[in-house]
Amino acid sequence: MAGGTRSSGIAIIGSGVAGLHLALLLQKQQIPVTLYSDQTAAQLASGRMLNTVAHHNTTVQREEALGVDHWDLTEYGYFCHHHYLGGPQPLSFPGAFRAPSRAIDYRVYLPRLLADFQERGGDFRAGPPVGPEEIFPLSQRHDLVVVATGKGGASAMFPVIAAKSPYTRPQRRLSAGLYNGIAPSHPRGVTMSIAPPHGELLEIPTYSASGHVTALLFENVPGGDTEVLADAKYDEDPAAFDRLVFEKLRAHHPEVFERVEVKRFGLTRPEDLLQGAVTPVLREDYVTLPSGRVVIALGDAHSLVDPIVGQGANSASYSAWELGTVIAEDQIFDERFARKVAARRADRVQAISDWTNLMIALPPAPHLLQLLGAMSQSPAVADEFTDNFNAPERQWDILATPERTSAFLARHGM
Amino acid sequence: MAGGTRSSGIAIIGSGVAGLHLALLLQKQQIPVTLYSDQTAAQLASGRMLNTVAHHNTTVQREEALGVDHWDLTEYGYFCHHHYLGGPQPLSFPGAFRAPSRAIDYRVYLPRLLADFQERGGDFRAGPPVGPEEIFPLSQRHDLVVVATGKGGASAMFPVIAAKSPYTRPQRRLSAGLYNGIAPSHPRGVTMSIAPPHGELLEIPTYSASGHVTALLFENVPGGDTEVLADAKYDEDPAAFDRLVFEKLRAHHPEVFERVEVKRFGLTRPEDLLQGAVTPVLREDYVTLPSGRVVIALGDAHSLVDPIVGQGANSASYSAWELGTVIAEDQIFDERFARKVAARRADRVQAISDWTNLMIALPPAPHLLQLLGAMSQSPAVADEFTDNFNAPERQWDILATPERTSAFLARHGM
């Protein structure tokens, strides 16, 4: 490294998409890096489902640049959003991407990228979770420490930015699972089905260890009719659980329900279910240790978002890319460096956080409903909203205030 | 404008380089703009010298893009810095630009650009100075108000950022004038002559109403031997003033003095002298009026710097360009817009402020002296420092801390 006094490079804690994309980018730039994880490759590949996740095309482009674009978009990609807004007069309308998105189960995705990293000579170390008390010793052995996991407690070292973290509790209770027996939509896409006031369903064509399956992510408003999906115990009675999901689809999400093949419908495997909830927070970009060393927050350690618009992985990958770029530009890892990182990624990461927080606000913001209504009337508006999943800062340009939504619609003659 | 409810476009207060570059950029993008000034074109062309100013090549490139690059660099440009560091063992060494800089007296420059703006149909309004009390009514008549002048008191509406404004009084007392009778340096360049502990002299080949002349900017440390240059009254005894300058050149700045032609030496015209001082401040990028309208600070209203490294005009032009670009991208002028502007220009504008403040610090920072010493030994180091006048954020990468300077020198094998 510059100055020649330290030589152990960058330490990345966490082998999720944030840590792996950063590790692969640094490796590509021949910057020494050590990737620490609390899971071996085999552990990453097994166990309970980690999340439901969509990689939008901007993320796919980073995967191409990193040489880890292993899943051909023709087979593995999806091409649009199908929107359904329930109510007395349901609305149904598509929105197209300019370039495809892709959803790969992380128990397939992460081990494959880890293998890429290791096959290219990458230094990967699996061990016990890295807690906050281990950050300082790590910072003495490395030029820079990056905390790229929301697990293990290390993220708590980054103060929460209260002005950007409006919720003190989850706004949705989640039930995410992989299912057989749902025919794909045409064109193949994600269905965003909104069932006021009970919550939303994201139906995502996903590739997993079971092959091409369907992820159903129920975003359940506490107290609503679908909240039970976040509590029902699959293991106690698998058939009853599948029936419950089937009934909730029938009751609230007809455009997904109409594609269900009754006999085949059901969770793919017991471990393909994740129930929980997220309290979204945005944390400071970095902290400075008493020694003067900075520690950078990345991915969930920096910005934890509800999965409702599938932006968490994209935020993490984007943020990793910006961080890796600044690391290559300026290898003095001080506060000036950390502020550069913060400034470089601020607009998109904050837009993702702000936009996601708006999407789960209760009651829904009138200007969000105004936009959804306009999307149902204007394919151009629906397409722009959809393609903005690749440019969340432009989405926030449209949604940050009611005035912005009105001005956007005025530009579309509405 | 977007939404169609307002139509009077952007109001720019101030016809300095910040206001004119912004006005020309908006005009080029066919965005309605009104340029307000407290001076007519004729007043801009006459009167006392406004400043000494160098436009580095990044600024020249913006002038090219705006179609106002009227002064051919072969004749009007300069190509390097000549450094002289006085002391028991004086150091003398050049530093080269990759592309030329240019210095045009603003009494020539500003009226020419104003003529360009008006010939292209620009709306220019000369009147009394715009005070803070007129900002609100202006904001009601325009989509956005930009305060692009340090004069008239309107800049006081932008709070000073204390953490970025280390000085409560001027660190130098200034004496800037245009002189005849100094032969150009070869290659034609600016001489930065440092006379510890008395201060610095910038000698700038400048084009003015008198033709090609020499600007001498004496940066005088209070209490030092050259401070008298900031107080001496030219009008009371022109010959005595010229003799005083001559003597100070002889005593402190031998590399400029050796090019003085005694018989021709003297101030070009009585009005070609400016004596004063600057307390540098960095102010907030914008304020939000009680009505919700934002007002943007630009140029001296945003960042007021000592002229010691000739960055003020370049900061203003850069900042105007970034502001004009964001205006073209996002015509909803709310806090989100204002924060985008702030984020976009922060790194360079703050680097200029921080670097300039370091250059006038007393006593000089040891790592600055270390860098100057290294420049005298390494043409590559001297050239990089010199060319970084075009990239102040890279200069600050080198100078922000002693560790950064050491790492930079280590990269040069020093």
Structural key phrases:
homodimer, 414 residues, D-Amino Acid Oxidase, Chain A, domain 2, 3 domains, 8-stranded mixed β-sheet, 6-stranded mixed β-sheet, globular, disordered N terminus
Domains of chain A (count)? 3
| CATH topology title of the largest domain in chain A | FAD/NAD(P)-binding domain
Q: Going by CATH, what is the homologous superfamily of the largest domain in chain A? A: FAD/NAD(P)-binding domain
CATH architecture of the largest domain in chain A: 3-Layer(bba) Sandwich
N-to-C terminal Cα separation of chain A, in Å? 56 Å
Helix content of chain A: 25-40%
Most extensive contact: A-B, 22 and 23 residues
Helix/strand order of chain A, N-terminal first: EHEHHHEEHEHEEEEEHHEEEEEEHHHHHH
Nearest-integer average pLDDT of chain A = 96
Identify low-pLDDT runs of chain A: 1-6
**How many DSSP helices of chain A?**
14
Report the oligomer.
Answer: homodimer
Rg on CA atoms of chain A, Å: 21 Å
Query: By helix and strand content of chain A, what is the structural category?
Result: alpha/beta
Major sheet characteristics of chain A: 8 strands, mixed
* Proportion of strand residues of chain A: 15-25%
CATH class of the largest domain in chain A: Alpha Beta
